[in-house]
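Changelog note: in this version the structure field was regenerated for every chain. One regenerated record is shown below for reference.
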Amino acid sequence: MGRHREFDVDKALDAALSVFWKNGYEGTSFEDLTRATGVARPGLYSAFGNKETLFFKAIDRYDTKHLTYLREALAEPDVHSAVRRFFEGSITVQTLNGEGRGCAVLNGALACSTETEPIRQELIARQKLTEDAWRVRLERGLQEGELPPSTNCAMLAGYLMAVNHGLGVQAKAGASKASLAAIVEHVLATLPPAPTKKRDAHQAPLPSHRRPSRRDAK
């Protein structure tokens, strides 16, 4: 019979995530991982397989534990509230515990060599899923009259992702939470405004305290 696993898998994943988040994929060695998790190399291999498998399990852990704000944002009742929730949640995570962490997915995708190009492509694909989710949400907002008819939802979704990536780079470089929040406020102020909604022709007449005149009756 195999030996009983003597460490907490979730705690080990959290420790591994912390290292990958800080150093990226290529900047993290297996020695870094064994030191951070407190688990010897054979134990990590047994539980997670190779470094690549452990990395993506850590990124999945990041998604489950830290990116709940994205799902909450997409569920907001209006587009502008959704975008605000997205960026505010992103800043909170990227400056977690007062540290300039940036985005774990973006950090992992940067500075990848030819040998790790498949990993970079997988991370890019994950980011594209988020961009697609925003495009769908924006298209719904467009249909519901929350955005001007001329809004290019695909381009706007790409813009939101580009801003978020920029926030991640700024956070990683040590920008303060306040300075990132100021950028977000500027972005929110420049979003396409909701058009003035026209009253539905079938809607009941608006109440009026003015008595109808003979001209009204004609």
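Spot check on this record: Confidence is low (pLDDT under 50) at residues 198-218. The chain has two domains: 9-62, 67-189.
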